[in-house]
Design a protein that fits this description.
The complex is a heterodimer of chains A (about 180) and B (about 525). In chain A, strand 4, helix 2 and strand 5 form a beta-alpha-beta unit. In chain A, helix 1 packs across helix 5 and helix 4 crosses helix 6. Chain A starts with a strand and ends with a helix. Chain A has about 180 residues and is of the alpha/beta class. In chain B, helix 3 runs parallel beside helix 4 and helix 16 runs parallel beside helix 17. The longest helix of chain B is centred in the middle third of the chain and has 24 residues. Chain B is globular and about 75 Å long. The chains are: A alpha/beta (about 180), B alpha/beta (about 525).
Chain lengths: ~180, ~525
């Protein structure tokens, strides 16, 4: 009997959260889990909130994570990670970027300090491509997930374009070191 | 596999050879993925797409069209009568509802169309069923001589789940035989055709009692049984667990009578869990089956696990469902979607706002200009309505002609703005229509359209000449402006609003995402 694992990825349209969810999905599938991913398309993608979900278990019915049941939060953007807090179990592990993307017409978002944050953008830039924030955070989250380096590499290679594999693996390793 | 991709895979495996659709979230990816496997095209609107698919079916091919729920309103006219003609090659129509209005202007329940068109409707709940039900739909279509509807939803279309694919089937074209009594729907043909439709529905009623896509999964006790379908079924399973029994309907029209009566006799309490309207519940009650449903459950949006637990199991919402006061206190303000950074139409709407114009808006990216920070839109109803409604608005309030414009995108104009413009010219209002032309259907993900110069397959096509089209309809004042040139745009709008005859301003620049 495989234990249920619920992961929530919170960010803003265009940050690559669907790719991160697909990588997670492949990891669990390869271990024989039933997996469902839910993603957001259309209007909400235009700079709006994007909450992507990955549910794995013996048998998954709804693709949506019920509030209060997420084991892991990957926060691609700080204010959206705060907005996603109601999804979390009290003991959930969180991997949240310190990056704040301003909301049109609103003042600066003050970090309420509910998460320990990671400067994923700076780490991604250091690894060679600032668009690899998602793999940096996956690297960080890998510490809370029971997969080998080989399994991670296989899942990343499955979903990343061949020319971007090296930089993504580097970003993943940097994220793991956080 | 994404639900929509699985539908496309089902089309391929079923030997479907013709797909025509107009993009619409959450249905768009079906046709995109279908284009990687078989012939698929973008049509200017859903009515054209449906009629093209009907034509391919008449010719003997297995044919498909997919659309969002509001697209079915546009395609309804041909489909009501295609129900009477029946099919030659199998004809399948997918319609994606949007419970919760994730990206739509309403949350209509498309099951009513199945009822009023008298067409069978299947409803998958995961990607495997998307594939399997698509193949089944073609079988039913040809066996019962009927177009078949597949009802999807945002969650089913845009969730990924595990799929086992099958082998593609090669299906030969069916012979075309001239048969006016079947294919020419004059009143004298329609009356007997209607009788045939009623007979067909009786046969389908028998089929749905036994169809393998309607299943019962017995729980550990026989107290509560839930009748459900689609995404609502998944939420119910998640919420109510293994103690409860589930009657999952894969076919949502027609609905079984005997099977449901039998179920009612076996359990203490029968519930219907259906998102949006009480279609299944009304069916049960009509046949004297006592069920609980909408008296305790909302007709709005998607159900949550907490909602179903509270209504059906009487469990108060657990504390985990509500954010703790500490979390609630730090919630950021809403993040509404906005026009992309660098979108040239920030300029267009800034000018409209500056001039204080009343704006009849339309459906597309530019609908986002209604919200903050632009707030430069006064109305938005449906595809094409900006142009037609501006005409009516000005007939009722002629004094607004100097300060009111319609704003419509290129793809929306092709879809259903053209006929509104024809009406403006024919019935003469001094209306000013802005066509925001970025050569692409941008909102739904950059699909090619007749103004792009390529088709779905990326092949070169003629480019629609918008200026010539508008002039050909009789608009004398047609001009083209670059939205980056705000001074010229402002000057042009002032001049065109002041003019005493219809005018079209084409505001043209490539989409920033291209």
């Amino acid at each position: 009997m495989k234990k249920d694992k619920n992961i929530v990825i919170a960010g803003v349209g265009g940050q690559g959260s669907i790719l991160a969810a697909k990588i997670l999905g492949s990891l669990f599938l390869a271990r024989g889990y039933d997996v469902k991913l839910n993603e957001v398309h259309g209007m909400s993608q235009r700079g709006g909130v994007v909450v992507t979900m990955c549910k794995a278990g013996e048998k998954v019915f709804s693709p949506l994570v019920t509030p209060g049941t997420a084991d892991i939060l990957i926060g691609m953007e700080l204010s959206e990670a705060v907005r996603a807090a109601p999804y979390l179990k009290p003991e959930a592990k969180t991997f949240v970027s310190s990056r704040v993307i301003p909301i049109a017409g609103q003042g600066a978002f003050a970090d309420p300090g509910i998460y320990k944050t990671i400067d994923a953008l700076a780490i991604a830039e250091k690894a060679g491509n600032k668009r690899c924030e998602n793999t940096v955070l996956l690297g960080a989250a890998s510490k809370a997930l029971d997969f080998t380096r080989e399994e991670w590499e296989a899942a990343i290679c499955e979903h990343v374009k061949p020319e971007h594999i090296d930089v993504n693996l580097k970003a993943f390793t940097e994220g793991q070191a956080v | 596999m994404l639900g929509n991709e699985a539908v496309a895979r089902g089309l391929y495996e079923a030997g479907c050879t013709f797909v025509s659709s107009y993009p619409g979230t959450p249905s768009t990816e079906i046709t995109k993925y279908a284009g990687e496997l078989i012939y698929a095209e973008w049509a200017p609107n859903e009515k054209v797409a449906a009629e093209a698919a009907i034509g391919a079916s008449f010719a003997g091919a297995r044919a498909f069209t997919g659309m969002k729920h509001v697209g079915l309103n546009v395609a309804a006219d041909p489909l009501f009568t295609a129900s009477y003609t029946g099919v030659n090659g199998g004809l399948v129509i997918a319609v994606a509802d949007d419970m919760g209005c994730h990206s739509s202007q309403n949350e209509q329940d498309s099951r009513y169309y199945a009822m009023s068109m008298k067409l069978p409707m299947l409803e998958p709940s995961n990607s495997q069923e998307c594939l399997d039900f698509t193949k089944l739909a073609f079988e039913l279509s040809e066996t019962y001589d009927t177009p078949v509807l597949i009802r999807l939803s945002t969650r089913v279309s845009h969730s990924r789940s595990v799929v086992t694919v099958g082998e593609p089937q090669t299906v030969a074209l069916k012979d075309y035989v001239k048969n006016p009594q079947k294919w020419v729907m004059t009143p004298s043909a329609a009356r007997p055709a209607h009788a045939e439709v009623e007979k067909r529905m009786v046969k389908l009623g028998d089929y749905c009692e036994l169809t393998p896509v309607n299943t019962v999964d017995w729980g550990s006790d026989r107290q509560i049984c839930v009748i459900s379908s689609g995404n609502a079924y998944l939420t119910a399973r998640e919420a109510l667990g293994e103690g409860v029994s589930y009657c999952k309907l894969g076919m949502v029209y027609p609905l079984p009578v005997d099977a449901i009566r039998e179920l009612a006799d076996t359990v203490d309490e029968l519930w219907v869990v259906e998102e949006l309207d009480d279609v299944i519940e009304t069916h049960c009650k009509k046949h004297g089956v006592k069920v609980r449903g909408k008296a305790d459950l909302s007709p709005l949006g998607e159900y949550s696990v907490a909602q179903l637990r509270e209504a059906i199991l009487g469990e108060a919402a657990s504390n985990a469902d509500a954010p703790s006061p500490a979390v609630a206190a730090v919630q950021p303000p809403p993040r509404p979607p906005v026009l992309c950074p660098g979108c040239p139409h920030w300029g267009t709407f800034s000018v409209l706002k500056k001039l204080g114009l009343t704006v009849m808006g339309d459906i597309g990216c530019y609908t986002l200009a209604a919200g903050p920070p632009l707030g430069a839109m006064d109305f938005c109803v449906c595809m094409g309505a900006s142009v037609s409604s501006l005409h009516g608005f000005l007939k009722a309030r002629p004094e607004f002609s100097k300060k009111t414009v319609a704003v419509i995108g290129d793809s929306t104009f092709h879809h259903s703005g053209m006929t509104g413009l024809l009406n403006i010219v024919y019935n003469q209002t001094p209306a000013t229509v802005l066509i925001l032309d970025n050569y692409v259907t941008a909102m739904t993900g950059q699909q090619a359209n007749p103004g792009t110069g390529t088709n779905l397959k990326g092949e070169k096509t003629p480019v629609l000449d918008l200026e010539a089209l508008c002039k050909g309809m009789g608009v004398k004042r047609v001009c083209t402006v670059d939205p980056k040139d705000q001074a010229l745009l402002e000057e042009t709008l002032l001049a065109e609003c002041a003019a005493d005859e219809p005018s079209v301003v084409i505001v043209r620049r490539e989409c920033v995402l291209q």
